[in-house]
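Saturday, quiet lab. Running sequence design on the structure tokens for the scaffold JK sent over.
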């Protein structure tokens, strides 16, 4: 059991009160939401064929998560997935591997007392509410509207009726043009999102992602504006978990490497896409250009960077955020094999100490070449005495 798996599972339990392998894979960047949608639309037969990373490693991660949840004593239940937008939905399989398929369909939740409903007063209305919620999650808007009309007749004063009406109407309006994107985004953020999360819970993304996709389509030709950073495709695509689109739209903005917001979005998207080199470079720029902001952003970066950052904050003596890239080269010398040489990146404002450390760590991988390590160490000591102490400690 790795600490990372345990931490990810704990986070899901804290945020949602339950664990599903689907949410775990999305959270870990092993699955794109677009591929999940394709699976639910019956465009992909087995979802595990669309996962990022080594199949055996992913199987091990899911197994570790399951074992951890069982040790916690959480209740397990079987969950089924069916195709969307069909008159007769078909049951979907995650994998051809029976044990892996079973693991994916096994969810865990905390034990909780269920209130006993009054069979005569509550059962019909609550059955309709559950039906509407399930129809929304499964993107069956016609069925959602049908059951909503029945709820109006059965329990016109039901506490959830107004909220469900708003969600059903939002789903029905997905094909309509966006007239005022700022106003509609505010409604989505302040009204629809809390409603969906309250009424549907962890499956709310099945309702909310299409809403963000609709806004993305309206913003596809809009330039980035520092005064309205959310009115850009990179933001709406991030909410829709369309990480390729986030990365591409950020990189289309002139001088995006000097913008705090765009660098953060780029680092997060590249982490989700398993583009660790690109994520690192954006994170390094955040450290060099915006050192006062990086700590607040670290938890959003979906790679090992956040783990390294946590370790960096605990070292003694402390180092300023600007030195994190250089310290990381000390901690992981192998990064010189995937990072470009500083002299090849004149646009990157890296520190002098980073230059020196890159050269020192490169020398380790070139044993047959003559090096001047003594002079380079002396130079590093002169450039950053505190960092030099960490270098002596870790090499």
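Result came back. Writing it out in full:
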């Amino acid at each position: 059991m790795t600490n990372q798996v345990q931490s990810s599972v704990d986070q899901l339990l804290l945020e949602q009160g339950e664990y599903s392998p689907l949410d775990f894979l999305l959270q870990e960047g092993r699955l794109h939401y677009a591929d999940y949608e394709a699976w639910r639309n019956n465009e992909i037969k087995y979802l595990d064929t669309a996962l990022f990373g080594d199949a055996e490693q992913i199987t091990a991660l899911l197994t570790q998560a399951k074992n951890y949840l069982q040790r916690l004593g959480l209740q397990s239940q079987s969950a089924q997935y069916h195709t969307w937008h069909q008159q007769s939905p078909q049951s979907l399989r995650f994998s051809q591997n029976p044990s892996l398929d079973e693991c994916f369909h096994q969810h865990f939740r905390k034990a909780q007392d269920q209130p006993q409903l009054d069979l005569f007063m509550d059962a019909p209305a609550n059955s309709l509410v559950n039906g509407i919620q399930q129809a929304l999650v499964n993107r069956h808007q016609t069925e959602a509207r049908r059951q909503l009309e029945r709820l109006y007749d059965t329990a016109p004063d039901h506490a959830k009726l107004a909220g469900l009406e708003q969600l059903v109407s939002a789903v029905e309006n997905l094909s309509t043009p966006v007239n005022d994107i700022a106003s509609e985004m505010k409604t989505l953020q302040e009204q629809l999102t809390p409603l969906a999360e309250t009424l549907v819970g962890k499956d709310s993304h099945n309702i909310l992602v299409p809403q963000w996709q609709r806004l993305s389509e309206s913003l596809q030709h809009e330039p980035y504006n520092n005064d309205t950073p959310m009115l850009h495709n990179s933001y709406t695509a991030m909410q829709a978990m369309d990480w390729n689109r986030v990365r591409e739209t950020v990189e289309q903005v002139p001088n995006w490497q000097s913008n705090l917001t765009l660098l953060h979005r780029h680092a997060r998207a590249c982490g989700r896409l398993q583009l660790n080199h690109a994520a690192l470079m954006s994170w390094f720029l955040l450290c060099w250009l915006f050192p006062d902001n990086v700590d607040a952003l670290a938890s959003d970066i979906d790679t090992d960077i956040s783990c390294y950052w946590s370790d960096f904050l605990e070292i003694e003596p402390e180092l300023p955020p600007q030195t994190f890239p250089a310290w990381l080269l000390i901690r992981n010398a192998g990064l010189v094999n995937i990072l470009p040489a500083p002299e090849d990146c004149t646009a990157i404002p890296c520190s002098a100490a980073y230059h020196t450390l890159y050269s020192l760590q490169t020398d380790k991988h070139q044993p047959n070449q003559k090096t001047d390590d003594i002079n380079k160490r002396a130079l590093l000591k002169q450039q950053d005495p505190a960092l030099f102490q960490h270098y002596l400690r870790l090499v």
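Notes for JK: Residues 113-121 have pLDDT under 50 and may be disordered. Residues 3-109 form one domain. Ask whether to fix the surface positions before the next round.
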